[in-house]
Amino acid sequence: MKQVLLIGASYKFFEYLTEGLSQQQVKLEQSPNIRSAYTDLIQILPDLIIIDIGALNEDTVLFLEKKLKDPNAKSIPIIAIGDISDRRRISFLANFRVLKYFRKPLKYDCFFKSIGEALGLNFTADQTDCIMEMHVTDNIFFIEIAGGLNRDKISMFRYRLDECKTKLKMTAPKLVLMLSNMKFCFLDMTNISLLLDTILADRIIKKSSIKILTNDTFFKDFVNGHEEYKGIEITDDINTVLNPLLEIFAISESKDPLLQRVLIPNKELPENDIDMRFSSDYGGTSKSSWDEGDILRVAIIDDDPVSQKILVGTFDRIKAKITIYSDGVTFLNDLSGKDFDVVILDIFIPNMNGLDVLRNLQRQKYSSPVLVYSQATEKQYVTDAISLGAANFILKPQKPEIIIQTALSAISGANTGF
User: Fold this and answer.
1) pLDDT tens track for 204-221
2) Cα–chain center distance at 390
C-alpha cells in the first residue's frame, strides 16, 4: 500500500484527505508540526509528501533543505499547498524538487489528479455535472444544488459544512437544502442516501432542523419511505420552509422582506482549504497555473528539433510547464500574455537572433532570468549576452542535471526575501 505524509495541515483537512485516499488504497499519515516533520519523514519514508507551507516561513525552508540533503529522502516527491500568490516565491520551491504547488482553496479534481500522478496511480473524479453553493444567514445553512449529485462534491460538502459550523461557532444550526429543478430516478438512490447521510453525520444538525425544497416526486417518496430520514421535512413550497424560521427574525416582518433577508448571507464564510467547485465548473476559461499546480513555467526559444526534444525532456523531470518557440519574434509577440519563471534562449535562431531578443527584453525591463544555451563559442557572444542581461551562458550540449541546476540557480538569484 502506498503511503503519503501530510505535513502542517489542519486535522479536519487530514480527515477529509484520509477519506479520499483510503478509497484509492492509499494510507495517509500526519505530521501536524513542521518542526517535528523531518523526524516523522525519516521514520515513515513515504511515497509522497503533501505539505501545507502557508506563507513559506523559515521553518518550512529548513525542512525542505534537510530533506534535499538526505540521501534516503531527497527523491521523495512533494506536493505543496499554501497561500502564496507571488510567482517568484512559488518558483523558488523548484529548488527543493517540489513537483506541484496548489493555492488555497484547492480545486479537488486537479489536486487529486496530481496526487495520483505522483504515486503512479490513476485517480479519477466523479464527472457528474453538479454546482453546489452554500451561504449562511444567522444560524441557518442554505445549500443549493443544481445539475446532478456528484459523490466527490458531497464529500467536500461534509468537510465544508463541519469547517463552517466550527469556525462560526454555530450551535444547533438549521439547514435548508434547495434542489433547483432537479429530477431523480432509482439510479440516484445511492447518491441521495450519501447526501442525506452526510448531512446527518453531523449530529448537531437535528432531523427536525432540516428542510428540503424540491418538487421531485421520486426524491420525496424516497425520503418518506426510509425510517432513518423520518423527521426531515420535504416540501415544494418556499413559504413552508420559511415560516418555521420566523422565530429567528423579527416577527413583524412581512414575508417578502423576510424572503430577501433569508436568501442574502449575513455571515462571511471562513476561508477554506477546498473549493466546492471543480476547475471544469469555471468553463475552462479560468483554468490557470493555480489550478494545475504549476511550480515552474519555462520558455524555450530554439529552432533545432533535437535541442527542443532534449530541453523538454530535461524540464519535464521537474514537472515544469514548457512553452516552445522556434524564433525570437514569436516569443516577443507572445510575451505580453505569458509569465515565465525562466527563459532558455539560443543565439542562432531565425528572424531575430538571441542577442537581439535580449536587447528587446532589456528595453522592456524584463525581470525573469534568461539562460543562454547555445553552440556559440566565441567569447564576444558570451560577453554580449551577459552585458545584455543574460543570467548565465552555457554551451551545448550539457547534461540535463547541469541545465536544471543552472536554471534553478538563475531563478534563485532573481528571488530575494527567503
Assistant:
1) 889 999 999 999 999 999
2) 33
